[in-house]
Amino acid sequence: MRPALYGSGGKTERMRVGIVAKPESERAVAVAGAVADRVIDAAHSVVVEETTLAALATLRGDDGTITGVPLDDLADCDLIVSVGGDGTFLYAARSAGRTPVLGVNVGEVGFLNAVDPADAPAVTVETAAHLTEADTPALKAVPRIAASGPEWRLDPAVNDVVIMGERRGHGGGLDVTVRVDGARYTAGRADGVLVATPVGSTAYNLSEGGPLVHHAVDGLVVAGMAGDGLRPPLVVGADSVVSVAVEGAPEGVVVGDGRVRRSIEPPTTVTVERAGEPLRIAEPSLDFYSALEKLD
């Protein structure tokens, strides 16, 4: 249970801010340190994901004033700050639960990151001061999707779920049959099938020839990967249930957001559908069309 953000009379209480950064990036780690310092100066508490803290200690020395925690413990914070690119954001989102995530863009694309590194310390404190459970205008709810099969279920993904053969290219594909809400849409041989959220449409989906989908659209993209005989990519309703029956290969794999993987043994069926809890993104000011310029 996270602490209450506001006490009686609307006075701000001490808040707990969690920070995670790309540990290989000295710039990201330095920004994370600056954010932590500002949070402490504002009389709030701060915890830092343990690999980020190790990198911060290497960068500027370990003064022992900041606590390091496993990634999963960040869900107990009032706000999570992700410093890096979209990969770091997705890493932070894995264990966020209902805790809002504020993205600081130190990467090249950063569709999920709205905050400039120079503004990050001030924006973090300002965002933390205004977040309440009822303060929905300050948050953007982003749907997550989850893949499941017989007796297993992957953690929810923000961008995409991919069902594919054990390797791509000649000799590594699958025979797939794709159904949407039980109705057969397409079938054929392919490297795999990708199901993406609108947020994820600008990621792996785009490289596979899928359509760009505005983040405000309530839908999912279903796209074949190097398919033979498959129909074109399809945009379906956000509450649609997509099932992918796979066979014709000794092994396959299901991947969520490029990070969470599970091996499968065909013949089997993988189901992808909206997860129950959306991801909450704080400071949703990033303009979709301006962000597309980063793809040019």
Order of helices and strands: EHEHEEHEHEEEEEEEHEEEEEEEH
**Largest sheet: number of strands, sense, barrel closure:** 6 strands, antiparallel
End-to-end CA span: 43 Å
Helix content: 10-25%
What does this structure look like?
By secondary structure, the chain is an alpha+beta fold. The protein has 2 domains: 8-142 and 279-295, 3-Layer(aba) Sandwich (Rossmann fold); 145-274, Probable inorganic polyphosphate/atp-NAD kinase, domain 2 (Tumour Suppressor Smad4, Sandwich). The protein is built from 6 helices and 19 strands. The chain has helices at residues 26-41, 50-60, 86-93, 120-130, 204-207, 288-292; strands at residues 16-21, 45-49, 67-69, 79-84, 101-105, 139-142, 145-149, 152-153, 160-165, 174-180, 183-190, 192-196, 219-225, 234-237, 242-247, 252-256, 260-264, 268-274, 279-282. The strands form 4 sheets. It has a 6-stranded antiparallel beta sheet, with no helix packed on it. A 6-stranded antiparallel beta sheet has the order 14-13-12-9-16-17, with no helix packed on it. The termini are far apart. Mean pLDDT is 89; it is low at 1-11.
Can you tag this structure with a few keywords?
single chain; 296 residues; alpha+beta; Rossmann fold; Tumour Suppressor Smad4; 2 domains; 6-stranded antiparallel sheet; 34% strand; elongated
Concise description?
The protein is an alpha+beta fold and 296 residues long. Helices cover 19% and strands 34% of the residues. It has 2 domains: 8-142 and 279-295, Rossmann fold (3-Layer(aba) Sandwich), CATH 3.40.50; 145-274, Sandwich (Tumour Suppressor Smad4), CATH 2.60.200.30.
